[in-house]
Amino acid sequence: MSQHRARILDGKAIAQTVRSEVRQQVADLRAQGITPGLAVIVVGDDPASHIYVRNKSRACQEVGIVVFDHSLPAQTTAAELKALLHQLNADPSVYGVLLQLPIPAGLPVGEILDQLDPMKDVDGLLEANVGRLWLGRPRFVPCTPLGVMRLLSEAAAQLRGARAVVIGRSILVGRPMAALLLAADATVTICHSRSLDLADRVAEADVVVAAIGKPEAIVGRFIKPGAVVIDVGINRLADGKLVGDVEFVGAVERASAITPVPGGVGPLTIAYLLHNTVLAAKLRHGLAAD
Ligand code: NAP
Asked: What are phi and psi for residue 128, nearest 5 degrees?
């Protein structure tokens, strides 16, 4: 047994700080007659999606952001979703639009999202926002990677010149995560399901961000002693227990700081959705530089 044990990063507490910051900004906007509003669309009956949407809506209301709820049946067509997006684009009380993913199989998600006004794309998924991030002129950056950067900052992780490994290359998490770490001057490696040398890449990393969706796929003894480990994964086991993508019990003995699951990245994701909604309001009213 090593004498070393990682600091466990308290995502809930850090998210509370972000939420208080946002609450103050919403109060300032409201004092100027601006009420930030977020439209939340969920299609179908996926129980996890409904839980996420409920938590996000509650968090919005708690800081004074108005929520426009659009819960739609699984049979909703692409044409109906596109028409809804057009309507929300035109509605001045809607500053941001969140389409909870995944939507039912068979619906062309990219084609539907393309109808959204990029200035309301608070999830940062549209070409314009993805492109801006990689060009070094970020506008809306996906909420989870923003939350991870905040956790790394709270962990006082040294990013400049550090070796960072991102495991997962999704549009929503892995890729924007890599862009943010690169912008922070880390030397970034992106691994994925076809990577042949995952264990070696993890073993040399000062910062590990796991966003895979496979329970405890990253074995604790892979972790370099002293590394900072951020576990984005949320996996429900057969017994109902939630675990991350990193084998926590092993990793906590080697890392210098690590996020738990639950209570790590998840709360930050919600907090940064609020942050992006406020940013949308500020951008529309010329109160933030674009
Ligand atoms: P995703 O779209 O399914 O992407 C998973 C990525 O992991 C893919 O790039 C895949 O590679 C890679 N991968 C799969 N198996 C792998 C393996 N054995 N070794 C290395 N790479 C592997 O998932 P996502 O949306 O990015 O989400 C990832 C996880 O984070 C999920 O558990 C999700 O629930 C969780 N999540 C949490 C939050 C939060 O707030 N905490 C937010 C978003 C997502 P390929 O590209 O080759 O298929």
From this structure: -60, -40
Which of ligand 1's atoms lies nearest the C-alpha of 213? 32
Range of the domain at 61: 32-120
Q: 141, 146, 193, 196: which to mutate for ligand 1, most atoms within 8 A of CB?
A: 193
User: Do the Cβ atoms of 165 and 191 come closer than 8 Å?
Assistant: yes
* Residue whose CA lies nearest to ligand 1 atom number 17: 193
Per residue in 89-102, pLDDT tens? 999 999 999 999 99
pLDDT digits (tens, 9 = 90+) for 47-80: 999 999 999 999 999 999 999 999 999 999 999 9
Q: In this structure, is residue 26 part of a structural domain?
A: no
**CATH code, domain carrying 148:** 3.40.50.720
Side chain identity at 77, as an amino acid letter? T
Task: Indicate whether this model's pTM tops 0.70.
Answer: yes
**For residue 279, is it within any domain?**
no
d(CA 83, CA 76): 11
Ligand 1 atom index nearest CA of 269:
40
